[in-house]
Amino acid sequence: MLSFHLSALQVVIPLLAAPLCAIFRGPRISWLIALAVGLACAVNSLAILNQVNTSGEIIYALGGWAAPWGIEYRIDSANAFILLIISFIYLVGIFYARDSIKAEVPEHSRCWLYTAWILCFSGLSGITVSGDVFNVFVFLEVSSLSTYILISFGKDRRCLTAALRYLIMGTIAATFYLIGIGFLYALTGTLNMADLAERLPGLASQNTVAVAFGFVVLGLAIKMALFPLHAWLPNAYAYAPNAVTAFLAGTATKAAVYVFMRLAFAIFPDDFFSDLTSTHVIVLAAGIISAILTSAIAIFQDDLKRLFAWSSIGQIGYIAVGLGLASSAGVAASFLHLFNHALMKTAIFMAIGGLFITTGSTTIAALENAGRRMPWTMAAILIGGFSLIGVPFTTGFISKWYLVSAALEQNHWWLAGLILIGSLVTAAYVWKIVEIAYFRKNPDTQIVRQEAPLSLLIPTWVLVTANIYFGIDAQFTGSTATLAATAITGITP
Amino acid sequence: MEGLGIVNYWIVVALMMTGLYVVMTANNFVKKIIGLNIFQSSVFILYISIAKVSGGTAPILTSEAEIYSNPLPHVLILTAIVVGVATTALGLALIVRIRSAFGTVDDHEVQDVARD
Fold first, then answer.
1. Residues A175, A181, A487, CA angle at the centre, nearest 5°?
2. Does the beta-carbon distance from B50 to A167 stay under 8 Å?
3. What pLDDT, in 10s, does the model give residues B36-84?
4. Which residue of B has its CA nearest to A178?
5. Which of A142, A177, A324, A337 could form a Cys-Cys staple with A219, CB 3.0–4.6 A?
6. At the topology level of CATH, where does B2-115 sit?
7. Given an 8 Å threshold on Cβ–Cβ distance, is B90 in contact with A148?
8. Residue A285 vs residues A154, A290, A332: alpha-carbon distances, Å
9. Which residues of chain B make contact with A185, given a CB cutoff of 8 A?
């Protein structure tokens, strides 16, 4: 009986738990509630993945109202995979948050932070499982509104302007998306993704479909911070509390990428994204420019959080390159990089949070001698950095491998070359960090071992270990990503 | 009636552009939020216009009328209005805190204060 409702539970559990935090108000109890939600949903997402793998697509009619009248949740290999990523990053993030948040957010407002955090998770889960385009809009706004709140808990007062800027950009993005699905509804009379996929091919030559596609793509491109629509991201990540940044880096943009994939490859007619409108060229160009240019901007940052925020935009670029290839292999590479980037970037931001707790600063200058003062914290940043470059035995290598293979499959040698240049630029900013942390000797200062607390180190290293594990044994991630790509594009590679 | 239908969509376009223009050009954060509101409202009107069936009445079950306007977009927009109100409220709340932290709600002045 319970297994029948799994997909609804993924959204309902956090949605019901969030008000509990607001009722109890205690910082400790709020954290426990958030953690319980994380455990329940992580197990739930595993059960969903298992059910999808064994008995195929899950179709759940919300409230018992069947599809054309009611909202439907539809889970296949693609969203089951994304759901798994989001749930586990949330769980590890909440585990990490207790001590990190304690150091940054005053006691009386911590319960509100956890309320917003759980709501954000609920929204992200909703985006992922929903099979109704308007329902996706509502969840998009649930997650976005709570993200703005989460960012405004930062220590620096500039977090407020960062949150407001994100609010303005995010609302414009969501409204663009709303306009797009409005046009689709006017044309087809349905909001259900499966019905849209059936009715749109016959209408593909109409201008309305193209306009709708334009609005939807633009809206989602802002949400996923695709260059040049990334302006909200660096400040939002730089000024949010460290635990929040770690969570957002792994999840927020990923849900938008997923919706983008679903719309471009599964809902709109097969060749609409590629041959009919040539949108894939724009996405590919934006992706590869982003991968090189924003990584170059990252080199010149003095603040670690800001540096890795720019790096995040670059990594979104690689995901966009996979989408722009518009092939099954390309989408599989994007899925894989979604997973791998969530692992590495969350671990890096967690390690930076550990650095902040011990030194009170996240500037690059604070890294001096960090290699000897805090070897474990520093090693986490180092391995994350290697993974960003794509060094073998890290997950980054696997993503790059898939991406380059997908590019070569279409004989895009130049693209493979540009991807490698992107890696070199990434190596430049990682080297800048390594140089200061390990090689800059300052004989005047005494080296005192001051590692980040264990409660921060353990979740960080869970992710770092996963990073290395999936970098060596890519069986699970590779096959799941390929399955997900097949489910989205409908083509078996 | 047909001309009136098209007028509706012109109003949508006009409001949409006005709203976006205000969001982009205003320096005052409150004005930016108001611009955002106008922008969102234009989309509400777009949906409501789509729902209109010429000659149809309000979607109430009576024996007198046979043609009804489509109620679904109305319901969708009710939800979107709620989202819009929440966004405005959150935006204004952030502006109140920006005002107490920076002493101004002007974009340029805030950037000047933040730099010092």
1. 115
2. no
3. 999 999 999 999 888 877 777 777 777 777 788 888 888 899 999 999 9
4. B43
5. A177
6. Helix Hairpins (1.10.287)
7. yes
8. 34, 8, 19
9. 50, 73
CA distances to A83, A84, A87, B77 from A441, in Å: 45, 43, 42, 62
Average pLDDT, chain A: 88
pLDDT above 80 for B4: no
Q: Is A358 within 8 Å of chain B by CB?
A: no
- Annotated domain spans of chain B: 2-115
The closest alpha carbon to A259, from A323, A312, A205, A328, belongs to A323
- Tens of pLDDT along A264-275? 888 888 777 777
Measure CA A107 to chain center: 28
Question: In this complex, which of B39, B46, B76 lies closest to A134 when CB atoms are compared?
Answer: B76
3-state secondary structure chain B: CHHHHHHHHHHHHHHHHHHHHHHHHCCEHHHHHHHHHHHHHHHHHHHHHHHCCCCCECCCCCCCCCCECCHHHHHHHHHHHHHHHHHHHHHHHHHHHHHHHHCCCEHHHHHHHHHC
Domain coordinates in residue numbering, chain A: 278-493
Rounded Cα distance between A232 and A167, Å, is 9
Residue A107 amino acid letter: E
Q: What angle do CA A417, A420, A425 make, to 5 degrees?
A: 130
How many A×B Cβ pairs under 8 Å?
69
